[in-house]
Amino acid sequence: MAHKQVDSLVDHLFRHKAGEMVAILARHVGVRHLDLVEDVVQEALARAMRDWPFKGIPSDPSAWLYQVARNAALDTIRRRATRARSQDDVVDLLYTRLATEGDRPFAAEIADDQLRMIFVACHPAIPAPARVALTLKTVGGFGVGEIARAFLVPEATVAQRLVRAKRLIADQALPYAVPGPDELAERLNSVVDVLYLMFNEGYGASAGEDLIRFDLCAEAVRLAEIVATHPVTETPETCALVALMRFQGARLPARQNADGELLLLPEQDRARWDRDWIERGLSFLDRSAGGDVLTRLHLEAGIAACHAVAPDYASTDWTTIARHYAALVTLDASPVLVLNQAVAVAELDGAQAGLAIAQRVADAPALRDYYLLPATLGELHRRLGHNAEAAAAFERALALSRAEPVRRFIKKRLVEVSEREPLGVDNA
Questions:
Q1: Nearest-angstrom CA–CA distance, 413 and 422
Q2: Residue of 105, 121, 146 lying closest to 20 (CA atoms)
Q3: Which helix (H) or strand (E) segment is 18 a member of?
Q4: Is the pLDDT reported for residue 413 higher than 90?
Q5: Cβ contacts of residue 387 below 8 Å, gap of 6+?
Q6: What's this model's pTM, rounded to 2 decimal places?
Q7: Residue 239, pLDDT score
Q8: What angle (nearest 5°) sits at the alpha carbon of residue 81, between those of residues 75 and 86?
Q9: Distance between CA atoms of 228 and 221, rounded to whole angstroms?
Q10: How far is residue 349's CA from residue 426's CA, in Å, rounded to a whole number?
Q11: How large is the angle between the packed helices 3-29 and 34-55, nearest 10 degrees?
């Protein structure tokens, strides 16, 4: 058996099954022993890479991995008991739970375990950055290095966040459970925020050579669907979240050309949009209409749906999109939403109308380092033929942007509106 083939399979199983195994084992030994659980799962994957090239891949690789991880957990608990010279009540309980466990759980039980793990990772007691890291690692199967690269922080920072999160879980005895009705709303809001952030970072990476992190997007969608299809956590808002992700994710294959260059909506080949994702998004959008509250996610999903169903750019329903943005700004007058509203209004009523709205937030402190503010201003000035203003805005956007595909796009725009060389291109 070729090592390369085994490595590829183990990498796939790590991505798709590690979180599942962690969730199942955490139910048996308790979430406060998360380090033990993660260690035995890693040990199982390492053993697969050692054994499978020589002994062959088992008929059910996932079940093999889980059995090895379970046995490793039992061995660890035995050693701890031996060192203590007796099995105390806690060790005895952990051992009994694992030793008496039946066959591999059914798919529904796995989903329930993962749902519980999501709620542990997204508990409001855990600081927001650590919630994302813990969700990605324990449920998503991401390594520390991957998380660090995704969010552009040192690996040591991610490791420290994970240690603190696990310490909070142990010290506060956070329950391995979906919360009851009295706590569900607060906890569910936290879960929604983390998954939304995870997807957005994958959809448009904040820095680096890659504009899109397909793995982050796919994992955010997978976890969101676990939440939105469970009887306890299926709400209009969680369904709207999945709809939004599905609509946005459908466009991912067309957001870059073969050279990795950014393509805006008018330039995208809509034949490359994933129709199955759009259909699934429409299904979840229908399910999201069951409540009596209109949330931000409903409106954002509605906007994404308008783009998803338009056969071409010229057919886009900008009237509905502009109306949705107006409603969004009423719900949450954040400068980012006002800026998005400006783009929609520019498409509907012209660049001058859009520019008037964008200039309302031109000095907003929250957008001081947000490259899309000067990029949007530059684009609107470019459409109006204000080349000097457009060039100045694009230069500012270039100085703020860190994702290389975005920087290359801005440089092209800058060349269009100015015959002079871009300022600060090499050092920005």
A1: 10
A2: 105
A3: helix 3-29
A4: yes
A5: 381, 417, 418
A6: 0.77
A7: 97
A8: 145
A9: 10
A10: 37
A11: 150
Locate all alpha helices (DSSP H) within 105-235, ordered by sequence: 107-121, 128-134, 144-151, 155-171, 181-203, 214-228
pLDDT above 70 covers what percent of the chain? 85
pLDDT at position 88, please?
Answer: 52
With a cut of 80, say whether residue 156 has pLDDT above it.
yes
Burial group, residue 293, by CB count within 10 angstroms (0-12, 13-18, 19+): exposed
H-run or E-run covering 49: helix 34-55
pLDDT at 209: 63
The 10 Å Cβ neighbour count of residue 8 is: 11
- Taking residues 2-26, what's their average pLDDT? 73
Is the pLDDT reported for residue 91 higher than 80? no
Q: How confident is the model at residue 428 (pLDDT cuts 50, 70, 90)?
A: very low
What number of other Cβ atoms are within 10 A of residue 297's Cβ? Answer: 21
The predicted-structure confidence for 234-290, as pLDDT tens digits, reads as follows: 999 999 999 999 999 999 999 988 888 889 899 999 999 999 999 999 999 999 998
Q: Which helix (H) or strand (E) holds 330?
A: helix 318-331
Q: What gap in Å lies between CA 358 and CA 268, rounded to an integer?
A: 25
Q: Which helix (H) or strand (E) holds 207?
A: strand 207-208
Which has the closest alpha carbon to 201: 243, 146, 239? 146
State pLDDT tens for residues 322-350: 999 999 999 988 899 999 999 999 999 99
Section 349-362 average pLDDT: 96
Q: What does 158-188 look like in DSSP terms, one character per residue?
A: HHHHHHHHHHHHHHTT--SS---HHHHHHHH
Residue type at position 280: R
Mean pLDDT of 57-81: 82
Cβ contacts of 235 within 8 Å, gap of 6 or more: 188, 228, 291
Distance of CA 123 to the CA centre of its chain: 17
Eight-state DSSP code of residue 263: -
252: Cβ contacts below 8 Å, ≥ 6 apart: 203, 212, 214, 217, 274
- Looking at residue 265, its amino acid is L
- Please tell me the distance from the alpha carbon of residue 301 to that of residue 242, in angstroms, as a whole number: 9
Q: What are 288's two structure tokens?
A: 């999201």
Question: What type of residue is 345?
Answer: V
Q: 403: closest CA among 150, 172, 183, 210?
A: 210
